[in-house]
Amino acid sequence: MNKTLIALTIAASTFGIMQTANACTTAAYHNGEAQVTMRTMDWNGYDNATVVGKGRGINNSYSETDGVSTKAKYAAIKIESFGHATVAEGINEKGLEARILYLGTDAGTQFQQDTAELANVDAGEVPNFVLDNFATVAEAIAGLESVEVIPTGITGIPGHEDEAIYPPVHFQLVDASGEVAVVEYIGGEMKVYSEHGASYMSNDPAFDYHLTLDKEQVEPNATIRAADRRLRAKVTTEDLYQRNVTNSQQALISMKATQAAAFSGYNQQDPYFDNATFPTLWAVFTDRTNKILMLDRAHTFATESYSFDMFDVAAAERVVLGENPTPNASFTNELAK
């Protein structure tokens, strides 16, 4: 069959903006009943994060170009960003988490070719595909290996609403048993990292570089560059293993220290990225044992808590559970008010 991707024309200036726009950090902890994760969303602008509950049975197509179509097997709580264009983060009723983070094309990001052999999943739809259809990391990896993940442009990015941006992203998957995987598409090839170091993830360079830092026992510096943020999150979270924290609530509270260590600031500049700033718009804590998601937004001291008893998991519908209280406002702008 003949397949056609959305044509992507990206000006050099636009690519430069996207290259310096996003920086996030994750840390997943798994010890006994304590199965918790912390993730920051760092973005120079705003994403209008909306928390939604989506029930079982919703019909989904994951690409307009010969896409995989399924009826959602599992209910999920998802954080939608950029006008609902992308699911940045989510957990399903089986305790499987999926998230999307920035990994630039300079790091080698290149998705698969659109061929006739397999059906397609858009790169920006990978978290949806995983959360809707799989219960474990192993199932999700097998599912991704059975499709082609293609670089259909992501739309709805603030300031680029009329553009389709090549998806500069990679993914982390974590399940209720503590299995974890980082998935990247480098040079058109799917790469999966499932060792302990995959519990900690940030951005450029490609993930094998970060694993080399682990092997060489490199200590983090205080900058907001990706390697330092990841290593600080790793050092702080590894302390929980040293203390053998097995209680979920204690682990969640302890992960606040990981959030602080990975915090990207509001106006702090990254000297390794042309002095760009990556304000932390929100941080999320997920409890895979109790299936709870807690969201800490930059614009408020209140922490929002979401669970699967807030919507009908058996109803095939999307329910808005929480919205940004200050839409279309960057944190820097809020400080000036």
Automatic annotation (TrEMBL):
The keyword Hydrolase applies. Pfam families: CBAH. Residues 1-23 form the signal peptide. Keywords: Hydrolase, Signal. The keyword Hydrolase applies. It comes from the Bacteria. InterPro entries: CBAH/NAAA_C, Ntn_hydrolases_N, Peptidase_C59. Belongs to the peptidase C59 family. PANTHER family: CHOLOYLGLYCINE HYDROLASE, HYDROLASE. This is Linear amide C-N hydrolase. It comes from Agarivorans aestuarii.
